[in-house]
From TrEMBL:
SUPFAM superfamilies: Thioredoxin-like
Keyword Endoplasmic reticulum: no
Protein name, as recorded: Glutaredoxin
Domain Glutaredoxin: 16-81
Natural source organism: Lysobacter koreensis
Length: 106
């Protein structure tokens, strides 16, 4: 399986996927930490994370897959939502909670 197929499998296999530096329990950068906190505060109970620091192939190829240059990267229902700034804006507007509640109803 190619690295792009592995990325696709992660995105397809979980309603909410955060490609981040570190883990939800131990984020390794401030942007990843803030994104996890916002997702949890918005009600994400089924948050799947991928530690890009543990998988250099995913870290190198995810920006090409998503056309997004930085980490973290949030995907909901297979769609790239964006990075930390967008996640925080959606959280503050209440939109992130709505998006998350839709994933948990299905």
């Amino acid at each position: 399986m190619s690295v792009l197929e592995r990325i696709q499998a992660e995105v397809d296999g979980h309603p909410i996927v955060l490609f981040m530096k570190g883990t939800a329990q131990f984020p390794m950068c401030g942007f990843s930490s803030r994104s996890v906190q916002a997702l949890k505060a918005a009600g994400a109970t089924q948050l799947h994370t991928v530690n890009v620091l543990e998988d250099p192939e995913i870290r190198a190829n995810l920006p090409r897959y998503s056309n997004w240059p930085t980490f973290p990267q949030l995907f909901i229902h297979g769609e790239l939502i964006g990075g930390c700034d967008i996640t925080m804006e959606l959280f503050e507007s209440g939109e992130l909670a709505r998006m998350i509640s839709e994933t948990q109803r299905q």
